[in-house]
Amino acid sequence: MSGTTQPGAEPFTQRTPRVVAARRLTRRVERDRTGRFLAEGVNAVAAALERQLVRELFVTASAQQAHPELVAAAHERGVRVSPVTDRAAAALSETVTPQGIVAVCDLLDRSLDGLLPPGARLVAVLVDVADPGNAGTVIRVADAAGADAVILAGDSVDPHNGKCVRASAGSLFHLPIARVRDTAAALSACRDAGLRLLAAHGYAEAALDSLDLAEPVAWVFGNEAHGLPADVLREVDTPVRIPLYGGAESLNLATAAAVCLYAAAMAQRRSSGG
Amino acid sequence: MSGTTQPGAEPFTQRTPRVVAARRLTRRVERDRTGRFLAEGVNAVAAALERQLVRELFVTASAQQAHPELVAAAHERGVRVSPVTDRAAAALSETVTPQGIVAVCDLLDRSLDGLLPPGARLVAVLVDVADPGNAGTVIRVADAAGADAVILAGDSVDPHNGKCVRASAGSLFHLPIARVRDTAAALSACRDAGLRLLAAHGYAEAALDSLDLAEPVAWVFGNEAHGLPADVLREVDTPVRIPLYGGAESLNLATAAAVCLYAAAMAQRRSSGG
Description:
Two copies of one chain form a homodimer.
Chain A (H helix, E strand, L loop, with lengths): L16 H7 L4 H7 L1 E5 L1 H9 L3 E6 L1 H6 L1 H9 L3 E4 L2 H7 L8 E6 L15 E6 L4 H13 L4 E5 L8 H7 L8 E4 L2 H10 L3 E5 L5 E2 L9 E5 L8 H6 L2 E4 L11 H19 L3
Parallel strand pairs in A: 2-3, 5-6, 5-10, 6-7, 8-10, 8-11, 9-11
Antiparallel strand pairs in A: 1-4, 2-4
Helix pairs in contact in A: 7-8, 7-11
């Protein structure tokens, strides 16, 4: 039975072939080749189990003791649970303080087809976002704001990158995610779904506090250093700047996304009376 | 003349006593002892010069070439400009990619007395915030939202920490900052200034989208892992939760602060018709 842990079986070390193979999933090329990625930590593993995406769960003795409910949930779903040494867990981890629980999961991203459900009201589009921590934080904010989907467009980072998974704190598993090289196609899909396209842009004429945000919108965010390309700014309905009431010249990507996404989410709910 | 650079003078190395002394300012104990700290990078140095807080400017040959206006501004203000080698600049830097321009500045923080100007409408209070990057990002957001002051209360990190200075992107110099061990005194000062005390708290009954935020407020934010202590939650007027419309269990500190501070800043301006 693949779903049970052999009591007394020797834990896998960092040299056990299945651990070695899993470790390779920290590299994007290997994730793309195998269709798998690693999700580390309690939040992420719980959310991945919920979504039935886990293929194997590596767990240290102490993590097994600390989170029996996760190990039980894995067993229940017929997921192979593999005890590992602390050093093996550290080898699978990209953090300074490994949590001792790492899942091999199926990739999450899907195509644009059917990504946006009928009645979608809030979508986040990340264009050429380079930093995985930023991408993960924006995915977490989008999830919190009740977004219907997140699209990573153009040259954006792989959302299955370990730093992105970690920064998303489980949210990567909570809402549909698509990766699309063709940014124009991503924008078209949003427009076809009836969404108004707003782009966060520091030099825009329209200010966030002057807009009616109650209608369904897709918020488009650009690269941390370079912002949005000119052709994307031409393509959207309205470039929007966050008003800077004090001396700051800008906000960073994650806090800007938080302000924009929540401004829309709260305005939509105010206007619908709930 | 201390305000001029000797053309052709040998640049300081990482072993030059003034560089060695400046380098010690990366440690809190040394900052507290000397009343000085280091501000690195173009934004921070420009803002520090503006505020007349710079005592000495260390600059590499290439940074001097890239930013002649900063060096000129330093000369104009009679600030000692000291050419340094790339290695000396790296020794003074806490980043992976040093910018080659570092200022020794007077500490910024002031006491609570007179911190809050008459008519203050928006203040951020950080209680026991541990991560300097988070503190700096919240200071940047508070500045962007037009806050009148930021108070670092309780066990919060030193805002002059290099990571905090960097994350604030110059904002540390834009608005009054106080450090106060006694959190209750910080809250009293806000209340005495006529501010309503709101605390960001995940388990609060009142939701952000149900509140009238147009009146003058102090937003109180807690530690990244533990949130706000019970006595602080009892002391404030209203604990407030950010509504989580999707599957996320929480937001991180910086994005939560962005949502709260901007919700108040925009509501205040809407209600005043500007």
